[in-house]
Amino acid sequence: MPAPARQYWLMKSEPDEFSIDDLARVGTEPWTGVRNYQARNFMWKQMRVGDGVFFYHSNAAVPGIHGLARVASTPYPDPTQFEPGSDYFDPKSRREEPRWWLVDVGFERKLARAISLDELRGHAGALDDFPLLRRGNRLSVLPVTAAQWKYILTLEKKRP
DNA sequence: GCCAACGTTGGC
DNA sequence: GCCAACGTTGGC
Which pTM value belongs to this model? Predict the structure, then answer.
């Protein structure tokens, strides 16, 4: 059986909470706290070890893609859902049937320069259907096509 | 199953 | 801090 094609994702994080520099420091981080079913399903049902990840800063001075990461584990239950003191505690989740799943995310590199949301919007033609650019999109985990991945990486080497 | 109220996200 | 978008909750 041929190896499945590499997949690509965009994952948002608030840099005040956890930035690309934090990921660079720790190397690998469990992606705790996702409490949206669609985002969970991407991690639980579709991600594979080695998939590429755009690390996106939201609620930031410069919202945009700041680095590259990769999916570094198979899915497993988010431990914070069972911790009563945690912001992410979910009293309705049971250990026999966890509701929230996550993957580990591993640092790859920072981009030579951040590619801002504003700049991405300037390429709306080439980035047709890029979910990040869709109005009102609040998903914190988004699929990226191979073509979009490649295109966005070429922007890194250009002038903004 | 409908839908109003409510909470959260995230750009600005 | 504001507010549009939109997911979730819960009464009926």
Answer: 0.94
